[in-house]
Amino acid sequence: MKLQTRFAYYSSFLIFLIVTLAGLLFYVTISDALQTQIGNRALYLAETTASRGDVIEAFHTDNPSESLQKISDDIMDAAKATYVVIGDKNGIRYTHPLADRIGKSMVGDDNDKALINGESYISIADGSMGQSIRGKAPIFDTNGSILGVVSIGYLTSELDNLYFLYLDNIFYTIIIALTIGIIGSIILSRNIKKQIFNLEPNEIANLLTEKNTLIESVREAIITVNDKGEITTLNNAAANILNLPDSASIIGDNIKQHIPNTHLLNVLMNGEKQLDKLMLVNGDEIIVNRVPMKVKGKIVGAVASFRLQSEIEQMAIELTQVKQYTEALRAQTHEFNNILYTISGLIQLNASDEALTIIHKEVQGHSSLTQFITNRVKDPFLNGLIIGFFNRARELKIQLIFDEDSYLDIFPENIEKGLIISIMGNLLTNAFEEVERNKELRPIVRLFIFDNGEAIFEVEDSGNGIAQEKLDVLFSENISTKDRKHRGYGLRKVISSIQDLNGTLALGEGDLGGALFIVSISKRGIINND
To answer: How would you classify the pairing of strands 399-402 and 444-451?
Structure first.
């Protein structure tokens, strides 16, 4: 059964139950009120009759029934009572609607309070005419002695007809209220279904499960807030960055309690996106995207997704490495294509000896370079990188010198090789770009690697070097000797990677006239994750 149908059925049943109970309660209340009203009316008539002078005088005559019966008939007609009975102090009737019952004892056994105690009261008892509501009052003479009793009653069976008149009205009221309630529940169920986008409960549960799984599966930290700035969603990645032991513990807290410098509240106010913004949280630099959440044009909340800048930089490093490998392979392919074109031309000119000479020279040169680098650098990742840069240098007409005294053993597993490759790749790339800018000197780059328990890398170029004023702020800002925009992150990545490896960096002027970078990394150390 669909949600809308279930809601209509359940709400209709609930309305029917409530209206029925209300009708029964109303009926009982009306019944009690009518019964009380009739009893009070009977009592008032009995007390009024008992205090009449002509009634008291009739008790002193030889035949009280003669005068009292006329008085009783007049009262009964005027008050529309079922009966008016007047009896003596022994409970013997002087009057009765039925003449044959005059002179007989009153029925009901409820005269004692009036005849003995002299009290006026209301009672419900079975009399000679059936069950009735009675008002009874004692008759006193001028001396205060009890002469008799007046009993005026209304049959309960006659009251039932009056109850049924009210019951009809109650029934019609119930039907009208139930009809209005059912129509209202149907309209309400349709509106609710619209507001939940015509989704069924199981579909909503599935969406909630998918949403929770989705925000936990992504590596980005995600926080959502409502229009009051209260946190409504927080994944584990965000809890880790905020140093929270339990992400559920802060749900409902205001975002400023945990991120005082947040700008999510500004997004809630102006509804404008904030993309790729730098922010400092708990001493860590993060990159944040903030987007408002809107429903029918109204801002109902905002979502922030963020990630540590160090992770983004690490991805940039990996992309740089891929780019470097790609450039190296492209350069190698381009160089070999040139050689193949030359050999093809020589063969077409029947200059086979010259073609063989080029082939032997190329094979011997490449084989010698590869063998030399492989023998000196045991780590396959690094020697592959060096060979790639040799091919790149050949394409750029740069002389890349690999010092013949270089030697490096395999790095232990506790050293992140990706950081080593990033350091060397960025230093060589910067050196290539620097010597290309210096048109006055021959473009030369020298690479020296040595292993004495510490891995030492030296990269020297024949460029213009780095000015002294830039050396002073090298470790605190993005430094670049190039004039192009958005540069200067290469050295920053190098410094960051060296710090992660607990290494050191020295910078000075080399023999080639340009900058000399010396990196020292202990092979016994571990990566610094602080």
So the answer is: parallel
